[in-house]
Write a structure and sequence with these properties.
By secondary structure, the chain is of the alpha+beta class. It has three helices and four strands, in the order βββαααβ. Strands 2-1-3-4 form a four-stranded antiparallel β-sheet. Helix 2 packs antiparallel against helix 3. The mean pLDDT is about 90.
């Protein structure tokens, strides 16, 4: 999960993993609470967005975080921010599906 701020900075927050949604009917999933500051965005991505044959997971998270933070700094809305991240993901020859979820507080 990425946390992008309007000053152009970002951080990467790791969440505990769990089984794929819907695979195990009685699975328990961890919960977390975050405070989303004004003019910030919470960005969640699938691995297909941030890693590929030519991009490691860490490098992809850093790239997506930088793009998200710049988009927030530029005043882009959630859809425009997601487009910026997805446009960059297309250039890395991904073999996996991609999804981006953005929660933006303005």
């Amino acid at each position: 999960m990425l946390y992008a701020r309007d000053d152009g900075s970002h951080s990467i927050r790791e969440l505990p993993g769990g089984p794929v949604l819907g695979v195990l009917p009685d699975a328990d999933y961890s919960e977390g609470t975050f405070t989303l500051d004004k003019d910030a965005a919470l960005v969640m991505v699938t691995d297909g967005v941030v890693e590929g044959p030519a991009l490691t997971l860490d490098a992809g998270l850093e790239r997506a975080g930088t793009l998200a933070a710049q988009a927030v700094h530029d005043g882009l809305n959630a859809e425009e921010t997601a487009d910026r991240i997805l446009d960059a993901a297309v250039t890395v020859d991904h073999l996996d599906d991609v999804a981006v979820l953005i929660i933006r507080r303005t």
